[in-house]
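re: the backbone from monday

yeah here it is again, tokenized this time
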């Protein structure tokens, strides 16, 4: 119970900073690594849960079959004990979940070092400080591929430095 409580707390914290981390993705290598690590841990957790669900379903199916096929008490006992040997090992599952929880705890300890912010009501603390600034630079490495901006830029510069208010020139 205590392990589940700790796991919920850790997952809750990670959820609160996830949007901020995704916003920094591609801009910060450490955040990118953190997100990849989180994805791998979540895939591992999904595998454990799927394996446990499959084992539980298989055990339940065998239990139903053994009840139908058992003719006498001796056979029922034999079927139950063979089923117990094949029960999903709750200790192994608990051990795997504890390992996942520890990995998530380690990731949550990195949150502060990465400068990730918890989201409060859909907004991060950084967004509450003022308007968010977006990069306006092109993603293209070679600026020679960008066409059509030079003429517009020249017209704007001429409008700004020309005598007069600029309103007369804009109507021309």
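seq for it, each position gets an aa:
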């Amino acid at each position: 119970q205590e392990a589940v409580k700790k796991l919920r707390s850790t997952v809750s914290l990670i959820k609160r900073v996830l949007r901020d981390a995704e916003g920094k993705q591609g801009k910060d290598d450490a955040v990118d690594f953190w997100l990849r690590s989180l994805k791998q841990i979540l895939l591992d957790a999904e595998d454990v849960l799927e394996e446990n669900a499959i084992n539980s379903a298989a055990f339940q199916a065998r239990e139903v079959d053994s009840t139908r096929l058992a003719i006498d008490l001796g056979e029922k006992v034999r079927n139950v004990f063979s089923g117990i040997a094949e029960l999903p090992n709750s200790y192994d599952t608990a051990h795997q979940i504890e390992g996942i929880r520890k990995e998530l705890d380690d990731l949550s300890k990195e949150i502060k070092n990465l400068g990730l912010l918890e989201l409060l009501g859909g907004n991060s603390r950084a967004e509450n400080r003022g308007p968010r600034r977006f990069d306006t630079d092109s993603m293209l490495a070679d600026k020679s591929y960008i066409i059509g901006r030079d003429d517009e830029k020249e017209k704007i510069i001429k409008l700004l430095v020309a005598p007069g208010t600029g309103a007369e020139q804009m109507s021309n």
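The chain is about 70% helix and 0% strand. The two ends are 76 Å apart (CA to CA).
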